[in-house]
Amino acid sequence: MEIFRLDQFNDLLEMEGxxxxxxxxxxxxxxxxNYQQDKINFKNQLKEALTQLMEKYEWKEEESxxxxxxxxxxxxxxxxxxxxxxxxAFFHSSAGTIIxxxxxxxxxxxxxVGKNFMLKPLVPLLNANSRFYILNLNQNDVRLYEAGMxxxxxxxFPEDVxxxxxxxxxxxxxxxxxxxxxxxxxxxxxxxMFHGHGAANTDKIDIEQYFYELSKKVEEIIxxxxxxxxxxxxxxxxxxxxxxxxxxxxxEGYVQGSFAEGDAASxxxxxxxxxxxxxxxxxxxxxDRFKELQFGEWASFEPEKVILAALTGQVDTLFVRxxxxxxxxxxxxxYTLTLEEESTAENKDLLTEACVKTILQNGQVYMCAREDMxxxxxxxxxxxxxxxxx
Length: 390
Prior knowledge:
Number of domains: 3
Strand content: 15-25%
Number of helices: 12
Helix content: 25-40%
Shape: globular
Oligomer: single chain
Coiled coil: 32-63
Structural class: alpha+beta
InterPro entries: Bact_RF_family7
Keywords: Coiled coil
Number of strands: 16
Mean pLDDT: 89
Order of helices and strands: HEHHHHEEEHEEEHHEHEHEHEEEEHEE
CATH topology of the largest domain: Nucleotidyltransferase, domain 5
CATH architecture of the largest domain: 2-Layer Sandwich
Distance between the termini: 43 Å
């Protein structure tokens, strides 16, 4: 499944419409009769959205059903339900409909109708703190993947990236031939061997020179969005590549083995095993740092203080308890919050707003179970980029 990207997130943020419907409903990966239960689950969430439209906006039932027509149409799309993922996210307003299959199980199905879409469940798909690259050093078919905790997708190389060692050696041979014909020297790769079947019989010098060229091109791509990189390949290739690389984001662990294009799913699972303890340690380090700072001006678990700081770009790391919401309004000109007890047609979930703003400001957001919050009983907590005194 393709990675859910920030531009898709922005599409949801920018979609117009006074009434916006968000539905998250579980689905099954298999194409058995389980999809009938998936349809029932989604239909129940449509019913809940219908009720919210009628109560919040005083719409008639027929008017509400007409507005939700794309949802009822989706119920009739048998192919969609037979070939789904772990969950479906349905977003709809008068401006259009966006449907996303999600590669993770939901804590619970949910429906929300309001001025903004409910986007908190998508946060795990966007966080840089749970994303990485996989570089498969198969000399006959080098591939780069961008991955998260739930999905991965291939990064298509530009034409100037030598994706096989044969490509590189042919290029070198051509350059040497041109130099020879013009009377120049043969260059520094006079011992290159050309066998036409990748690196099976290629000497170490050729491999190292190939990796110098490959790493330079790959790191130009990675520089656009620096993330940790897991290397994969037969064991003797890993130290050769590390010797040629300049990027400091290659993780110590690696995936050993020879992987072809059709092995991408199993490669991803093995790379995830490498990264999971790294991500867990990073979250634990963030929680420990919060505890060190929480009694000063650099951290807080006071909801109003944290939300105001997040909405003004002052949060470095945000911890939000799953399945929680804080309803209210933010007055940007007065820099004040008005908190309310329940969702209405006019207010917003300020925790969602805080998550969105923190992600857009390149901060880290951790969606936590109650027992994993850095402060017992807290709904939200944060480490600030600067001292916050509000």
